[in-house]
Amino acid sequence: MHVPDGFLNAPTSVATSVVAAGAVGLALSRARRELDDRTAPLAGLVAVFVFAAQMLNFPVGAGTSGHLLGGALAAVLVGPWTATLCLTVVLAVQSLLFADGGITALGTNVVLMAVVGVWTGWLVFVGLRRLVRSAGVRAVPALAGVAAVVSVPVAALTFTALYAVGGHAPIPLGELAAAMLGWHTVIGLGEGVITFLAVGSIIATRPDLVHGARGLTAARELEIRTGVPA
Amino acid sequence: MSAAPHRRVSTTRLVVVGLAVCAVLAGVVSAWASSNPDGLEYVAESLGFLDSARDHGSAGSPFADYGTAGVDDARLSGGLAGLVGIAVVAVVAFGLMHLLRRRSNDDD
C-alpha cells in the first residue's frame, strides 16, 4: 500500500506530513513508557521483521499481490507508540533507499501504515482482549490476528478518503472505495495469518516481553533472583 | 542469576535467531515473492490513475526497487538489496529504541 509521489496533490501531502510529524513526535515521547532494557531489543527486531516481511508479496488472485503492513503485529508485540516508530523507520528506509513509497508521500504512508494501521490494530486488539480476558495469554496470537485482518481494509479506506480530498485524477469514489476495500480485505486475511504466526512464536518463547500480554501472563512461576538491588 | 525452574530463551538468543530468520526472508525467500502489482497499484491501474505517479526521487539509489545496481543476477541483486535493507533498518531501529528506553534504575 505504498503511495507513490503524485497520487495526492501537494496540499494533501503537506497535511498528511504535518499529521505524520505530530504523531511521530508524540510517539517519540510516549514510547519511553513502553520501552525498557528488556523490551527495546524486541522493538528493534520487530522493525527488521516488518521490513523483511514487506518484501514478501503474496498473490491474492487476478494478477494482484499483497504484503504484510505489520501495524497490528508491531502494536501487540511492543506497544502502539513504539510500533508507530518501528513502522516509520521501515517506511523511511524504503522510501529513501529503495524508492518504495514516494518521498513527498512519506507523510501519507506514515499516516496510513504507522498511524492508522498500528492504532486500528491496537484498538481492535484491546477491545477483543477485554471481551475474552479469561482466556489469558494463550488467546493473544488469535486476537492479534483478528485485529490485523481489520486493520488492512481500514487503512485502505483511509487512503480512499485522502484520495477523495486530494486525488490528482478524477475517479468515481464509490468505485475506488469498493476496489480498495475488496482487494484489501483479501490481503487482510494474509495479514491476519502472518500476524497470528509471528505473535504466536514470541508468545511461545517469551510471553513476558509481549506488550499486549501484560497483565494477562498466566501463572508464571516465581523466580528467585539474586543480586537485585532492593 | 539462579537457575530458573524452566529454561527460557534469553533475549539475546531471541534477537539473534530472529535476525537470522529475517535475513533469510529478505535475502533468499524474497526471490520467490509475487512480482504482481500490490492492491493499491492494481486498483490505480484498473481505475486509470496509476499514470499520475511521478518518477521517484530516490530512483537513482543503488538499491532502487529492491535491486542492487551493477549486479546482473536477479536473485543475487534482490537478495543483496534485502540484506542491506535489513542492516540499515536494524542499525536505525535498534539504535533508536536503545536511546529511548528507560534504564532499569530510572525513576521515570
From TrEMBL, chain A:
It is found in: Cell membrane. It is a multi-pass membrane protein. Pfam families: CbiM. Its main location: membrane. Keywords: Cell membrane, Membrane, Transmembrane, Transmembrane helix, Transport. The chain crosses the membrane at residues 7-28, 40-60, 72-97, 103-128, 140-163, 183-204. InterPro entries: CbiM/NikMN (IPR002751). The keyword Cell membrane applies. One of its GO terms (cellular component) is plasma membrane. GO terms for biological process: transition metal ion transport. The keyword Coiled coil does not apply. This is Cobalamin biosynthesis protein CbiM.
TrEMBL record, chain B:
It is found in: Cell membrane. The chain crosses the membrane at residues 80-100. Residues 13-102 form the PDGLE domain. Keywords: Cell membrane, Membrane, Transmembrane, Transmembrane helix. GO terms for cellular component: plasma membrane. This is PDGLE domain-containing protein. The keyword Translocase does not apply.
